[in-house]
Every structure is written in C-alpha cells, then in structure tokens.
Design goal:
The complex is a heterodimer. By secondary structure, chain A is α/β, with parallel strands linked by helices. Chain A is built from 14 helices and 8 strands. By secondary structure, chain B is α/β, with parallel strands linked by helices. Chain B has a single domain (3-214), classed as P-loop containing nucleotide triphosphate hydrolases (Rossmann fold, 3-Layer(aba) Sandwich), CATH 3.40.50.300. Chain B has helices at 14-24, 48-54, 98-113, 123-131, 150-160, 177-187, 204-214, and strands at 3-8, 29-36, 41-47, 65-75, 78-86, 116-122, 165-170, 193-195. An 8-stranded mixed beta sheet of chain B has the order 3-2-4-5-1-6-7-8, sandwiched between helices. In chain B, helix 4 (123-131) crosses helix 6 (177-187). Classes of the chains: A alpha/beta, B alpha/beta. The structure holds guanosine-5'-triphosphate and magnesium ion. Guanosine-5'-triphosphate (GTP) binds next to helix 1 of chain B.
Chain lengths: 324, 215
C-alpha cells in the first residue's frame, strides 16, 4: 500500500534505521506515515533547477521500453525549463499548453506515465498538487439534463492542481447527437479555459478511436497539442516487466519460468489473442497467478529455503486450455 | 496474494483473535504458514483447541514471526484466498535485543505491503490505566504495558493514510473495557473503531464485513 516508489525507498531506510537501533519504534512509524507528506512543492519557488528535473526524468527512464514517449517528455521538460529561464531574464515566454492525448492499447503504460508526469509538473512548479484523478465516461456523464455538468464539474474540481486523466475518452462522443457525453466534452473544454493553468487534462484511448474522437469536434485538436503514442511492448520488454514485477514483491523468475513465459507470449501474440492483448496488465496477472501457484506448490513442503521461497519456476506459470 | 495483517502492541490479544476468527470463519484445523524474520518459512498444523491452549498464553510477547492462516473470501462464483497474518507484538522504544528488533522490523515491512491492517488495542487496559488500576495480567511483564501509548497513536496516524485500515478495541468482555473504548474514541475520532472480544467472539461479524469489502 505504499503510494509510490520514492517513498518505498524512504520506508525501507526508516525500517533499516529501526533495525539498527538508531530510532525508536514510534519514531519509525511517524516517519513512515509522514513519507507522502515529504513531497513539498518546489522549495526554491521560482524555476526548477536542472538537477531536480534530471532526477525526476531518471524515474521515467526506469520504465521499460517507451523510448519515443521518454524522448517527447524530455523535450517537454526542456521546453518548460527554458520558458522559466526566459521569464527570469524578462524575455518573452509563451504560455505553455500542456494538455495531452495518449494513444495506445490497454496496459501500455499510459496511466503510469500520466502519474509520473503529474508529479514531474508538480516538482517543476507547474502544478500545485501533482495528483492524478483518473476518470472514465461513467464518472463524467449523468443521466438527466444538468446532471452531466454537475458530475463533470465535480471531477474537474477534484483535479485542480493536478492531472485529469480521462480513459477511453472517445466514448464521450460515441452516443450521437443527443448523448450527454457531448455535454461533458463542452464542460471540459470550458474548464480548460476557466482554470487555465490550474490543471492538465490528458485524454487517452486506442489510437484509431482517439483519432476519430478528435475529428468529431474541430475545437479539440488545438486544445490538446501534445500527442504521445504508447506502442505495444515486444516480448523481451514484457519479460523485463515480468522480472520487475516479481522483484518488486521479492520474487524472481527461474530461467525455465522465463522461457515458458516467453513461449506463451509468442503464442498469444501470433494468435487472435493479440487484438485484445493487454500488455503489462496481462503480465501482471500472469505473475500474480504464478505467486499463488507457488504458494500452493510449496504449501505441503515441510521446510522451505529462502531460495525456494523467492523463486517462481516454470511449473508456476501454467495456463489452462484455450487461455493461450 | 492479498494479506490482512493483525498488528498491535504485545499482549493485546492478536494471536487469540486469529485463532478464534479462523474458527468463526469455519476453519477446523489450523495450518499456519510461519515466516521467520530470517526468511525461513515452515508449516505448523494443529487443532483449534491445541492452538488456543498453546499459542496465546505462556509469557508475554512470545509471537516471534509472522504466522498466517489462509482464509477463503467468497467472490462471485469462486473464492479468493486471503492471508490472515498474526505478527510479533510491537514494543515501544528501541528494544535492546537485535533479534526482537529484527522481528518487529519484519512486522513493519509487512505492514507497508499489507492490503488490510487490523490494528488491535487492549480496551480493557486503556480503561484500567485511566482508572489508575494496575493489575498486571498473568504473563504480562508490566501492568501498563498494553494501554494506549505513543506507538498506538503513530500506528493510527499511519492508518489515516491507508484505505484498508481498521482499529479493533479488544477484550471488551473485561470490566474496564467500556471506559477504555470511550477513551479510545476520543483519541481517534476520525478512525473506524470496532469493539471485539477475541475471547468471546463478539464483534467478529463487523470485522468480517470489513475484510470482505476490502479483500
Ligand atoms: N479476557 C480477554 N482476554 C483476552 C482477550 N484476547 C486475548 N486475551 C488474553 O490476553 C493475553 C494475550 O493474548 P495473545 O493473543 O497472546 O496476545 P498477542 O497480542 O498475540 O501477544 P504477542 O504475540 O505477545 O504480541 C492472553 O492471556 C489471552 O488469553 C479477550 O478478548 N478477552
Ligand atoms: Mg501473539
């Protein structure tokens, strides 16, 4: 239940200090619950220091794959940084419009990157809070006249100071002329005017559908000037993701487990399953299932070594007939 | 697999709660998965009667590892497994024994990863401490040992940052527990607090509902 990676590192450090007898238990607990509050807004207030931005970008670089996404984000941050510097030098600086479109299949890292961006914009002093509010059609669209505006406004209010992430945004335009989804879009566009620099909207979904969505409303494309495309992961990347997910839970994959996973992935990606393949989410499910299988496999063993306890073997990666 | 963790200071009744809650859930034979602080895991099987007799009593703070029981949580047509994990009782300050600190560090680490945290406090001891009655329980090494302290306050503060946190006020069958519960409600006005008796089995229904909802 640790909110993000940084605080995990922080938490481990705190526990280590307790173990070493350097701090009392109550103090350790205090530090553990204080961890999220440690994220203060940029203390030097003005423009972000280069070091700070580079540290944040490192975190992005830690993600598997996504080279194009990373390159674009770097450009954005270089630009943000330069605009701030220019302001400092009393030069003309253009207002930055940072609303974005994310395209890609499920499980390709869109939400993860959105969450990181929110924090990065916060650390660079652009967003006051840096949180992410993730919504979909049902959160924005109401059932009767006036209801939609009310619901949409509520979500936007929640997102002020952070990022409003609208997943499967194209579904807002799908219902036709009389659908309340249109009203939600109008509301969003208006809020983007009214609260100009107070939040960033990211609309996300499958590539084809999002292209269609942007074409349904001539005002939309210019309001979302930044486009990031999230391609499907290839097999080596998916394996790397599996390794990370396992390591995050203190497990490792044995070589034969990796081999089996790889074979299975190739099979899925060659078959009809590839059309609705959910990328990292598929891998997460596979790893979580393997962890349960391992527990069952080891349950009746009278003694379990540390190595056995952390190793997921090929036996633990099993799929039922027709699943692959 | 999701884990619900019983955490709290030594001798508040964590182990007895685990055993009797498992019984309440229909488990007849206990299969504990014991994870020691040094990373070794082992299995222990015992009947409920045996467990109730052996585990909770003896001297205070005897639980020295994580010990988990596998519960089945109904989810749609199938069941979802959930670990119910008993932990080493937490003790204030910097414990002089490295092995004990190690065990408590393990408890803290597990707490960070648990989906559900059941923070148990001894309502009776809180009531007794407030009334100035010091009748150390048999086995407890200090009378005030199980009352409300800074450690609980910090655990509760941590709980506010987590969605799966619930406070259990235990030993409600004892005479000072009602007063203790009242005091606890004052200490933590913002928390959900469920009065239980690990011994008598009261309050288990509410705990079960909470666990079901979040598992
Ligand atoms: N009257 C009463 N006694 C209880 C209750 N719950 C636990 N006890 C008693 O309190 C003592 C401690 O119980 P344990 O379950 O061992 O406590 P614990 O929290 O597991 O202790 P550690 O493992 O040492 O941290 C035992 O003597 C139990 O019988 C309760 O609800 N009512
Ligand atoms: Mg115990």
């Amino acid at each position: 239940m640790v909110p993000h990676r940084l605080s995990l590192k922080h938490s481990n450090h705190v526990i280590e200090q307790y173990r070493e007898g350097q701090i009392a238990l109550a103090e350790a607990l205090q530090l553990l619950s204080g961890a999220p509050a440690k994220m203060q807004p940029n203390p030097d207030g003005g423009y972000p220091t280069k070091d700070r931005l580079l540290t944040i970008l490192d975190e992005l670089d830690d993600l598997v794959g996504l080279d194009q996404v990373k390159a674009t984000v770097r450009e954005i941050f270089a630009y943000v940084y330069m605009q701030r510097r220019r302001q400092q030098l009393q030069l003309r600086s253009d207002p930055i419009v940072l609303h974005m479109v994310f395209t890609g299949n499920p499980g390709t890292g869109k939400t993860t990157v959105a969450r990181l961006l929110a924090r990065m914009f916060h650390e660079s002093g652009i967003l006051q809070k840096g949180h992410l509010v993730e919504v979909e059609r049902a959160d924005l669209v109401g059932e009767y006249i006036g209801h939609t505006a009310q619901k949409a406004r509520e979500q936007i209010k929640k997102a002020l100071g952070g990022v409003l992430f609208i997943d499967e945004a194209y579904s807002l335009a799908r219902g036709g002329e009389k659908d309340f989804g249109r009203e939600a879009i109008d509301c969003l566009v208006k809020a983007m005017e009214d609260y100009r620099h107070q939040f960033i909207a990211i609309i996300a979904g499958y590539e084809r559908e999002m292209e269609w969505f942007l074409s349904t409303n001539p005002g939309l494309p210019s309001r979302f000037p930044i486009h990031l495309h999230f391609p499907d992961y290839d097999v080596p990347a998916l394996i790397a993701i599996a390794r990370r997910m396992a390591a995050a839970k203190q497990y490792r994959l044995s070589p034969d487990a990796e081999l089996r996973l790889e074979r299975c992935l190739r099979k899925v990606l060659a078959g009809p399953g590839r059309y609705h393949f959910s990328n990292a989410r598929w891998v997460r499910n596979a790893v979580e299932r393997a962890i349960r299988q391992q527990a069952v496999r080891l349950f009746d063993a009278p003694e379990v070594t540390r190595l056995q306890a952390i190793t997921l073997t090929a036996q633990d990666f099993r799929w039922e007939e027709g699943e692959v | 697999m999701k884990r619900s963790l019983i955490i709290g200071r030594a001798n508040v009744g964590k182990t007895l709660f685990c055993i009797n809650f498992a019984r309440y859930m229909g488990i007849r034979e206990l299969r504990w998965l014991v994870e020691r602080a040094d990373g070794v895991t082992e299995q222990r099987r015992m009947s409920l009667a045996q467990a109730a007799a052996e585990l909770p009593d003896a001297v205070a703070h005897h639980t020295r590892a994580l010990q988990s029981i596998l519960l089945e949580v109904p989810r749609g047509k199938s069941n979802r497994p959930l670990w119910l994990t008993d932990t080493t009782g937490l003790m204030d300050g910097i414990h002089p024994e490295p092995a004990i600190r190690e065990a408590m560090a393990q408890t803290l680490k597990t707490m960070l990863e648990a989906h559900l945290i059941l923070h148990m406090v001894d309502a009776d001891a809180v009531g007794r401490a407030a009334a100035g009655v010091h009748t150390p329980e048999p086995g407890a090494d200090m009378g005030a040992h199980s009352a409300w302290t800074d450690l609980d306050a910090q655990l509760a503060a941590y709980g506010l940052t987590q969605t799966g946190y619930l406070m259990l006020a235990n030993k409600m069958d004892l005479p000072h527990a009602k007063d203790g519960l009242r005091l606890l409600r004052k200490h933590v006005p913002k928390h959900r607090l469920v009065p239980v008796s690990a011994l008598a089995g009261t309050g288990f229904r509410e705990v079960k509902q909470h666990v079901w909802r979040l598992a």
